[in-house]
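In the lab's daily routine, each protein ends up as an entry in a very long ledger. A line of letters takes care of the sequence, but it says nothing directly about the fold. The fold becomes a row of whole numbers, each drawn from a learned catalogue of backbone shapes. The protein below has been through that process, and both of its lines are reproduced in full:
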Amino acid sequence: MCESSIKFSLFGILCMLIAPFSFAVETLKPLGEQSELILRQTAMPVLDETHLGKILNRHYNQGLGGPENWEKIESLRVTGSLYVGDRELEMAAYQKKPNLIKMTLVSKNGSLILGYDGEQAWRHLPNTKDESAAPMVSEEARRFVHVSSFGNFLLYPYRLGKTISFIDTVPLNGNICHQIRVTLETDFQIDYYIDIRTYLETKVVNFDIENQRTNSIIFSDYRWEAGMPVAQKVVNYENGQVVSQIDIEEVQVNTGVMPWMFKIPR
């Protein structure tokens, strides 16, 4: 059984990581003292009129559905299919703000459940000789927790522990995209490619600074769900080769997902 992913950050779990450039043209300016705490807790603040600020403002409103819709959404349930090589797995995933996630992958050979309850990342192989759930090993847990955040890392731009920088405007697969880099204190670096027409996220390139692991993800076939765009097709690449694909079949919003559902089974 393999381990894998989705998006709104559900679409990240397979997806580890790269750094195409080492310079930054423009970095989001630090906060002044006034309203600092409020802004750090705001997912989509109205940013200043710098080039980077304008890009993020349009991404928040056009590419993510805007702050009003964001505030209404508390949880997601996503179902679909995961393809790894010639294998197809059924996928069902739950995610709840701010960073709770649980994913079940089912194949002919059995099932795998992965979860994070905000404190502990765990894995469970039901219907096997050892049915007990167990915490993930440290490096697996580190990567899983990284992708558990609800929404991308361009949200909450003033939150401590991150730096957001404008890198360039570049051609990508026949489109033009703004390349925005987020560097985290957790030793992950993420480059987002934002389409200049739609302001949707079309590609994410991740770099694990600590382990030098790289991965890129292409998002396409967006559909709007409850005022929020969701990519129906997510393709994961390593070294230019496709390693997995996710086809989303259904997205449900605010289905009564509770925190206890993410706890490790006992």
About this structure: Residues 1-24 have pLDDT under 50 and may be disordered. The helical segments are 36-40, 51-63, 67-72, 138-146.
